[in-house]
Amino acid sequence: MFETLDDIESGNRVLVRVDLNSPVEDGIVKDNRRFSRHAKTVRELVDAGHRVVVMAHQGRPGRDSFVSLSQHADILAEHVGAPIHFVDDVYGESAVEAIRGLDAREALLLENVRMTDDELPERDPSVHADSAFVRTLAPEFDCYVNDAYSAAHRAHASLVGFPLVLPAYAGRVMEAEYEANTSIANREFDGQVTMVLGGAKATDVIDVMTALDEAIDHYLLGGIVGELFLRAAGHDVGYDVDGTELYDHQWEANEERIRELVAERGDRILLPTDLASERDGERTEFAVDGVRKDHPFLDVGSDTVDRYGAVIEDSSVVFVKGALGVFEDERFADGTVGILESIASTDCFSVVGGGDTSRAIELYGIDEDYFSHVSIAGGAYVRALTGESLPAVDALCRNRDDRG
Fold first, then answer.
1. Gap between the Cα atoms of 223 and 200, Å rounded
2. Residue 222 in 3-state DSSP?
3. CA-CA distance, 81 to 75, in Å (whole number)?
4. Hey, which of 12, 134, 302, 320 has its CA 20 to 30 A from 349?
């Protein structure tokens, strides 16, 4: 296990890696729960009398979302409740000068770390530790804090390089995410354990189902994944129509594994009994039995929501990965929102993961307090569920072991 903010003495120069990667519309960075979550770590460090320097990324080179972090500094400052200085440099002279100019209880945000060539390549931590990026910044600090759990599946320089050369600790987001997202593997639960699986990435869902094996009593499927499993069960759905490109290639890549899961765990896998499509601009529901797919299905139907809700009501533990429909369109939010509301009304331990699903909570005004944990991670959440290692978490754990 790693050390946390509780283990850092006051008055240090602290380098903090967070994940503020956000939607960008017409050049405007949108506020989201990542800012509010990471602000708690930054605020705690500032209040403890540290000089705090924040690193983060935004988008990838070549994409419209690849922008400066200047707007992020203003948004983060609002959540922290204190000024966040900004320097449009990652580790050059301007950055070093700004870092050295900080006083105790002040915070600075560096420019988008993906604007340096050293950041993005997936490399061994020792290689990253020897990069100009890490070798230049590390001497300016007493310790390093990683709070970017949602990026922890990446072996990037800002995530795995600094723990080799500085005492390293987990921030509050990292700590909370790790504890909740690994609970299915690390905790024993009394009562029925249910997992809701949806979204567009069949391989992720299949990997999760394969890894968890007997740990789950019921799988409730929806979204594209649900259709693919219905196809394996003999229904006339789960293939592309009207120019969609979401089903057929995933079926070809995963047909054998899907059929094996249906055969081996069919009694524990619940599939939709009805689906919703758009007809003349309206939501129209169709029973799965006897249906022929001639339009895209965009949600599970009301009977499915009721059946799944009854299972959730009898569950002691519920994990969610992926949406059951195109919830961004209010007409097709019934599945995703209905399941979330069922979980919220049930006294169970619940973890909601995947960026889209957690966004539905915010979009439809569901109180986060009704859930045990709402994850802001996507790929890292999937890796945690499947038991795969996370390079950034491994780096924190090794750092503690090396320091005894």
1. 7
2. coil
3. 10
4. 302
> Which residue stretches of 182-265 are H helix?
183-186, 202-212, 223-232, 248-265
In angstroms, the CA 293 to CA 296 distance is 7
Chain-centre distance for alpha carbon 133: 26
CA distance 290 to 301: 15
pTM of the model: 0.90
Burial class (CB in 10 A: 0-12, 13-18, 19+), 382: buried
In the numeric block, the tokens 């800012």 are attached to 35
Residue type, 19: D
Side by side, which strands form the sheet with 274-279?
A: 282-287, 274-279, 297-300
Q: What is the pLDDT along the chain (404 residues), one digit of tens a residue?
A: 899 999 999 899 999 999 999 999 999 999 988 999 999 999 999 999 999 999 999 999 999 999 999 999 999 999 999 999 999 999 999 999 999 999 999 999 999 999 999 999 999 999 999 999 999 999 999 999 999 999 999 999 999 999 999 999 999 999 999 999 888 877 788 899 999 999 888 998 999 998 887 789 999 999 999 999 999 999 999 999 987 899 999 999 999 999 999 998 889 999 999 999 999 999 999 999 989 999 999 999 999 999 999 999 999 999 999 999 999 999 999 999 999 999 999 999 999 986 678 788 988 989 999 999 999 888 888 888 888 889 999 999 998 888 76
Q: In angstroms, rounded to a whole number, what is the distance separating the alpha carbons of residues 239 and 231?
A: 8
Nearest to 264 by CA among 209, 309, 306: 209
In single-letter form, the type of residue at position 199 comes to G
Residue 246 to residue 238: CA distance in whole angstroms = 9
Amino acid 98 reads: A
Give me 8's structure tokens.
């850092």
Write down all domains in the chain, each with its CATH number in brackets. Answer: 5-174+390-402 (3.40.50.1260), 183-386 (3.40.50.1260)
Angle, in degrees to the nearest 10, between helices 202-212 and 248-265: 20
Q: Which residues contact 268 (CB under 8 A, 6 or more apart)?
A: 216, 217, 218, 219
Q: Do the bridges between strand 274-279 and strand 269-270 make them parallel or antiparallel, or are there none, so unpaired? A: unpaired
Q: Estimate the share of the chain in helix, then strand, then coil, as percent rounded to the nearest 5.
A: 45, 15, 40
